[in-house]
Write a structure and sequence with these properties.
single chain; about 170 residues; mainly beta; UDP N-Acetylglucosamine Acyltransferase, domain 1; nine-stranded parallel beta sheet; about 15% helix; about 35% strand
Length: about 170
């Protein structure tokens, strides 16, 4: 797996985290327990720090980057969908979801259980409150909240990825 120190900063990866062999992790990146970074994803902590919480999943071809002097914070059990871009966000709260090909831009915040729909663009300094869903370009809040049924389903989806990590760790092609 391509994991590189840069500028005197070395990635800190929990022993039970999974990093796919084609993912790239550079510099000041910290991966929590049972976090996963999938094929083609790039976490570039060359300018400054990226933290990815426990159980969080950075799916295939996602890109995460932090600006100089900033920290990009991804909470616990967050899902970053395939091909999304998370650039210098202030915070993605615990259990947040960023959909496939969505963009969350500089200094934006997504609260706990907040959802950024597929293809949405959350502009700089914008906020998606806890348990709310944002969709569109630019993203706007929908008239519904994340309910318990949604949370239960997403807990299951998130656990599927944590379980998948151990299957990959056991070996490919099995």
């Amino acid at each position: 797996m391509p994991v590189y120190a840069f500028g005197g900063r070395e990635p800190q990866i929990s022993g039970d985290a999974f990093v796919a062999p084609t993912a790239t992790i550079i510099g000041a990146v910290e991966l929590g327990s049972e976090a996963s970074v999938w094929f083609g994803a790039v976490l570039r902590g060359d300018f400054d720090r990226i933290t990815v919480g426990a159980g969080s999943c950075v799916q295939d071809n996602a890109v995460v980057h932090a600006r100089p002097g900033e920290t990009c914070t991804i909470g616990d059990w967050v899902t970053l969908g395939h091909g999304c871009v998370v650039h210098n966000v202030k915070l993605l709260g615990d259990y947040a979801v960023v959909g496939m090909n969505a963009v969350v831009s500089d200094w934006a915040e997504v609260g706990e259980w907040g959802v950024v729909a597929e293809g949405a663009v959350v502009r700089q300094r914008a906020a998606v409150p806890a348990a709310r869903i944002a969709a569109g370009v630019p993203a706007h809040l929908l008239d519904r909240e994340v309910d318990e049924e949604y949370r239960a389903a997403w807990r299951g989806f998130k656990q599927i990825y944590v379980d998948l990590c151990s299957r990959y760790a056991a070996g490919y092609g099995r």
